[in-house]
Amino acid sequence: MSLKIRLARGGSKKRPFYSVVIADARAPRDGRFIEKIGTYDPRQPKDSGERVKIDGVKAAAWIKKGAQPTDRVARFLSQITVEGESAPVYTWTAGSNLKKGEPGKKAQDRVKERADKATAAAEAAAEAAKAPAPVEEPAAEEASAEEAASE
Questions:
Q1: How confident is the model at residue 144 (pLDDT cuts 50, 70, 90)?
Q2: Using a CB cutoff of 8 Å and minimum separation of 24, what contacts does 71-78 make?
Q3: How far is CA 106 from CA 103, 112, 115, 116, 119, in A?
Q4: pTM higher than 0.85 for the full model?
Q5: CA terminus-to-terminus distance, the chain
Q6: CA 62, CA 49: separation in Å to the nearest integer?
Q7: For the purposes of burial, counting CB atoms within 10 Å of the CB of 120, is it exposed (0-12), middle (13-18) or buried (19 or more)?
Q8: Could you tell me what percent of the chain has a pLDDT over 70?
Q9: N or C: which end of the chain has fewer CB within 10 A?
Q10: Is the pLDDT confidence value at 16 over 80?
Q11: 79/120 Cα distance (integer angstroms)
Q12: How far apart are CA 112 and CA 127, in angstroms?
């Protein structure tokens, strides 16, 4: 059984309040959990002591049992130390998702199409500039003038 230390959402619409819980990874976000070890209120100021309250001893015990914290909870646990120890409950390192800022496949295809059309238009304009202007042949005009006079 894979255990997670994660947030379970509570509160009303547009007024979020989260509980920090130990749950089976297969359980729904706000569903069944094993134990509640803390709370998180994102509406509180960042420097407030009421914003994040987590029992560090319980969290450390669950981590020793194999529970894996989610990214957000890992960030919280990295700021909490248990009494008598200098190291935080969990060492969190910032992840880097280099593809997060990239547009999706269809958007990339559209950008490529626009670039192809722009290069094709630029090539056509360059060809038009290179080619000399069509010069009418005077012999053809004389022949048509002679035909008109003979009629």
A1: low
A2: 71/95, 72/7, 73/5, 73/6, 73/7, 73/20, 76/20, 76/38, 76/40, 76/52, 77/5
A3: 8, 10, 14, 15, 20
A4: no
A5: 103
A6: 23
A7: exposed
A8: 86
A9: C
A10: yes
A11: 56
A12: 22
Residue tagged 């230390």 (tokens): 5
Encode pLDDT of 52-69 as tens digits. 999 999 999 999 999 999
Phi and psi at 147, nearest 5°, equal -65, -40
Token representation of residue 70:
């989610």
What was the pLDDT predicted at 141? 58
Span of 4-8, 66-70, 107-111, 135-139 with lowest mean pLDDT: 135-139
